Amino acid sequence: SEKTGVIARSETVKMEDPVSVGSSSPAVDTHPPEASASKKKRKRRRFPRQPHWTHEFTHNCVEKVKSLFPHLRAESGGFLPLKIGITNDFAAFLTEHPETELTLDEWSCAISCITTRQVYLLRTAVAGIPRYGLDGLPAGQVSECDAQNARRWLAVREKQKLKMKTMQEQTASTEKIER
């Protein structure tokens, strides 16, 4: 798990610290490095985007998922909330149906795109809403934790939109002044 990796990294740092203990600087001995500061500097994605996942490739992957699993689409557009672990189900589906014209990589690309779209996040921002499996049947519900995470991502996007709007307004006002 991720927590285990974090613990292992901090233990490694602690093992290196005794080497610097002989230093005369009191900062070394009394102020351990703050983990939260280093976390804020790094932007980490849950699933790193592959270099070959271009806009066109992603679009084609999503279209393949739409055609193979039309029952996962909502009537109003977008996709229904997907079951936790649906990628494992898709891997089993591929084993049973090797003739499928969608690879696991294409599936992962499409799901990465689908689950980060605004419409999907809005649907998953409500706890208790059913999630759906590959067969189109309900398979669990959106948990409160998942709903909070979706709301957090929506808030981040809203903040980014406001920042962009402010920057555009500043640019427009600067251009007017220069004229």
From TrEMBL:
One Pfam family cited in the UniProt record for this chain: ProQ
UniProt-listed SUPFAM superfamilies: FinO-like
Superkingdom, taxonomy of origin: Bacteria
Compositional bias annotation for Basic residues: 38-49
Gene Ontology terms for molecular function: RNA binding
Family annotation (SMART domains): ProQ (SM00945)
Keywords tagged on the record: RNA-binding
Keyword RNA-binding listed: yes
All residue ranges annotated as the ProQ/FinO domain in the record: 53-170
Region (Disordered) location: 1-50
Protein name: ProQ/FINO family protein
Organism field: Salmonella infantis
